[in-house]
Every structure is written in structure tokens, then in C-alpha cells.
Write a structure and sequence with these properties.
By secondary structure, the protein is an all-alpha fold. 64% of the residues lie in helices and 0% in strands. It contains 8 helices and no strands. α1 crosses α2, α2 crosses α3 and α6 packs across α8. The N terminus is likely disordered.
Length: 191
């Protein structure tokens, strides 16, 4: 049976959660945890670390819900996604296991690559390829592609030079293109 919600159901849910309704808080959590986990996984591929980052993000989300201003369908998810991304970036900055400081290391000149052909490659395979990228490349790629940040914005967010962001993005594309080519060959997709 298809269940229809009133147009402003999300707005009502937010109002209830702001007033302390635990069922509304649980509903917001249940409706968004999978999506926000996927957002977080783009930056933090390790399951245990992801759980820690996501927990911190949800603490921030629910302790700051009174500051959220509902602006229509999708605005809550967008607001929560920004919190998750910021928490992931803070985690990566603090982590010695995933040093983002190496973002400013000089990179060799990388030839410009075309966007690789991803037809026939399952999304989960692409996701695992992105997870295999070095932390700096993965972070810049995600910020540029998914968060639609400019290299100038990325540089400011990560405390690096703009050309370092650009270099990391091109390096990520090159590495990804190599992985995609190898996968396509192994799967016989180029025949």
C-alpha cells in the first residue's frame, strides 16, 4: 500500500522535533541515516570511523535543530548533509591515519584525462574505486563533484592552495580512469 503524506509533512516533523517530540526525532533519523551514511562514506570509507563521524554529525544535527530554518522539501536533508560533510572533513584533518596535510605536497605533472566511460559499471563498484583513492584526492573529488564546490572554496575549506586542489582533482580523475579501464578490461566491457 502506498502511503501519502501531506505536502508539509517534513515541515511538521521538523516543528515536532524542535519541540522535543522524540518520535519525530527518531523519524528524521530513520528517514535520513542511510542517505547520510552514503554521504559520509564518500569521505570516510572505514566502517568504524564512519560510525564515529556519523554519530558526531547526528549529535550536532539534533542539538542544533532549533537553528535550522525550513525552506521547503529537501532543505532539511541538504542542511544535514552539510553537517555530515563538515564533520567528515574535521575528522580527516585531525586523523593521522588520513593526513590531508599531504594535499600541498608537490605533485608530478599529470596529463589531462578525459572523463572515463562509466557505462555498464555498477554504482557500488564506482564507489569502491573512489574509496581506494588517496585521502586528499578522494576528498577534493567529492567536494568538487558532489558538493559542487569550486577549487577556490575547496582550498579555503581544507587550508590548502587552490592549485593543490586542482592538482588533486586531476590526479583523482587520472587514478580513477586507470581503475575504470582495468575494470572494463577485466569484465570484457570494451569488446
Amino acid at each position: 500500500m502506498i502511503r501519502f503524506f501531506p505536502k508539509d509533512a517534513e515541515a511538521q516533523l521538523v516543528r515536532k522535533a524542535k519541540s522535543g517530540d522524540t518520535a519525530a526525532v527518531k523519524s528524521i533519523y530513520d528517514n535520513n541515516v542511510r542517505y547520510l551514511s552514503a554521504v559520509c562514506r564518500r569521505y570516510v570509507p572505514d566502517d568504524d570511523e564512519l560510525k564515529d563521524v556519523l554519530q558526531e554529525a547526528f549529535i550536532k544535527i539534533f542539538s542544533n535543530l532549533d537553528k535550522f530554518e525550513y525552506k521547503g522539501s529537501g532543505s532539511l536533508r541538504g542542511w544535514m548533509s552539510r553537517i555530515v560533510v563538515n564533520e567528515a572533513l574535521m575528522f580527516l584533518r585531525r586523523s593521522s591515519k588520513h593526513p590531508l596535510l599531504s594535499l600541498d605536497d608537490p605533485l608530478p605533472d599529470i596529463p589531462e584525462t578525459e572523463d572515463p566511460d562509466v557505462d555498464g559499471i555498477p554504482p557500488q563498484v564506482l564507489q569502491s574505486m573512489v574509496e581506494e583513492l588517496p585521502p586528499g584526492c578522494r576528498t577534493v573529488l567529492n567536494l568538487f563533484v558532489f558538493e559542487q564546490k569550486s577549487h577556490k572554496e575547496i582550498a579555503e575549506m581544507l587550508g590548502i592552495r587552490e592549485n593543490s586542489s586542482t592538482s588533486q582533482f586531476h590526479r583523482a580523475k587520472t587514478l580513477l580512469a586507470g581503475m575504470i579501464k582495468q575494470y572494463r578490461n577485466e569484465q570484457g566491457l570494451d569488446r
